[in-house]
Amino acid sequence: MNSRPKPEIIAHRGFSAKAPENTLAALEAALATGVESVEFDLHTAACGTPVLFHDSMLGRTTNGVGPLRRRPLAHLKALDAGSWFGTEFSCERIPTQDEALANLKGRVFRVYQDIKGYREIEDLDRMVSITREREMADSTVFTSSDWAIMDRLRRVAPEIKRSYLAEGLDTLKDALDRAVLDEGALLSLGFDVVLANPSTMEEAMREGVEVMTWTVNESAVATEVAGVGVSRIVTDEVEELLAWRVGRS
User: Fold this and answer.
1) How far apart are CA 125 and CA 233, in angstroms?
2) pTM
3) Domain map (residue ranges) of the chain
4) Nearest-angstrom CA–CA distance, 223 and 249
5) 89-132, pLDDT tens digit by residue?
């Protein structure tokens, strides 16, 4: 594992430039490129089942309406989660966390599970349980910008790595401080924040905190962030970034 190429390339919501985000089709498209790691987002259905989805509302990426967490799983499974991207994906459905992990097990180096929302705090325990049951705890990083989520995960799943996500400058220092105190944790930042804050990058490196950055879709930007110490890069353009890494090495 230590001989893997650096920086690590992470497929954002699957290969979301080639298939509808957070679907099994997007995960398959990512794996087909040979990328080592994938990322997806998690919410919970009304019944408490964790599902892959980014937004709190259904409208942008399905033919449904309203808040996802008020819809039971059977309702969500009936929705079309692919036609918005292309008619060839009209059969795509919203996958559950369990379905995604079952599909990824043994085929990927690392999975980044970004928790976007939940109904009640026990939903987080369910996400942990599913990850453990699928024997993916060692290869998972849970990430969130919600410190209540991160505190809960640290208590109930200390063995699963965590990444503290700062949405902007207002939470940057707090995210880094928390990562420093959480042994082995990562700091997750947008690439613009990375490039605008070299002192934060220097502090993270001094403290031994790895930085992952999103969403880098151009080789020139990848070169910049790698140059300031980023070790993990999240991208929609998986093929371009894999080619960039080969050329760089």
Assistant:
1) 28
2) 0.97
3) 8-248
4) 12
5) 999 999 999 999 999 999 999 999 999 999 999 999 999 999 99
